Structure formats: C-alpha cells, structure tokens
Amino acid sequence: MVFDLGANAGATTYFFSRLVGLGGKVFAFEPDEESLQALRRNIEHHSLDNVTVIKRAVAGRAGERSFSAGAGLASGFSQYVAHPEAHETQIIQAVSLQGACEELGIIPTFIKMDIEGAELEVVKSSLKFFQLHPIRNAIEAHGENIVTGLEKLFSGIGYGVEVFSMFGQKYIWAEPPALHHC
Fold first, then answer.
1. b/e string for 135-151 if b means 16 or more Cβ within 10 A?
2. DSSP H or E stretch at residue 155
3. Which of 68, 70, 95, 162 fits 84 for a cystine, CB–CB 3.0-4.6 Å?
4. Between the CA of residue 57 and those of 4, 19, 73, 99, what are the distances in Å?
C-alpha cells in the first residue's frame, strides 16, 4: 500500500503502480484541478488499475485550506508557496494523514511526500501515528528548515533518517526502527 502525497501528473504514481503490481494499491492524493486532470489521463492511458485518485490534500489538520493552484509543480497551500498572489487561489479540502487512513481503512507501508512546503506540518501532526505504524517515507523537503525539522521529528521517534541531494533538491528517507538497519 503506497500513498503518493502530491501526485501531480502521476510520474511517481506510474512507477509505484508498476512496483506494487496487481496485488498492491497506490493512493494518489492531488488537490490541484489541472494536475488532477493530467493524473487521471495518465492513469487511464497506462491502464493503472491499481491506482485510486483522491482529490484532496494531506495536511496537518483536516478542513478547508487556501491553495495556490495552476502553478504546475509549484501548486501548494498558499501559506507555503512563494508569491501566492501570482497564482489562482482556491479553497480546497484537506485531510490529515491519520484521517485519510481511517477513511480508506488502510495503513500504507510506504509514503512519498512532495507537498510543496507542508511536509513538516504533516509529519509533526502524525508523530504518534508513525510510532504506532511502521511506515517508510520518502520526502522531497522544500527548504533547509524543513529538512532539519524532519530529521529531528523522525529521529525523535526512533526512525532512521538519511538526507541526500539530487537534482538540486533535498530528499529525506525515514525508516521505522524495526526496519532500519544501520
């Protein structure tokens, strides 16, 4: 079970779908309407029958949020997007990570998170959940303060954390204690 948080047009969704195969499931969360349309087209075009699209953002709390949309790869919660006034702002529905799991009736084994600056709020609000459920995480961290914050949060609950750079971007791999091999 994979959660693709910030699925965009589905590049990683495609690979997750192929990796988990027919016995697995991918849940692609994407609130941006423009990206959502491209995601659905790509899922249909590639016959990704094991993918479920969810038109919501995952956030630190459930409810309505201001979202800067139509910015392609830079769509995100208005409070995190640089120059939100340059983008169309809309109100979207957000769900917490634990809320999404409860609604779907599943706990993912892997989470990919690329949510344009909201990574820290999601992890911070989900620490007890991560302690109870061993979930591997791959996170694109948007900003040095987010990298540092994520390292502290995950390390504080016993997760093994690796930070690496690729394509000019920082990424975090966080692995639960039972699965972490140092």
1. bbbebbbbeeebbebbb
2. helix 144-156
3. 68
4. 11, 24, 14, 12
pLDDT score for 70:
66
* Cα separation, 165 vs 117, whole angstroms: 17
Contact by Cβ (8 Å): 123, 147: no
Compute the Cα dihedral for 134, 10, 39, 58 and give only its sign. Answer: positive
CB 137 within 8 A of CB 122: no
Look up residue 65 and give its two tokens: 């949020």
7 secondary structure, DSSP code: -
Cβ atoms < 10 Å from Cβ of 166: 8
Token pair in block for residue 41: 């087209």
Which residues on neighbouring strands pair with residue 33, listed in sequence order? none
pTM of the model: 0.90
Residue 36, token pair as written in the block: 């959502």
Paired sense of beta strands 2-5 and 57-59, if any: unpaired
Summarised one tens digit per residue, pLDDT across range 123-175 is 999 999 999 999 999 999 988 999 999 999 999 999 999 999 988 889 999 99
3-state secondary structure of 112: strand
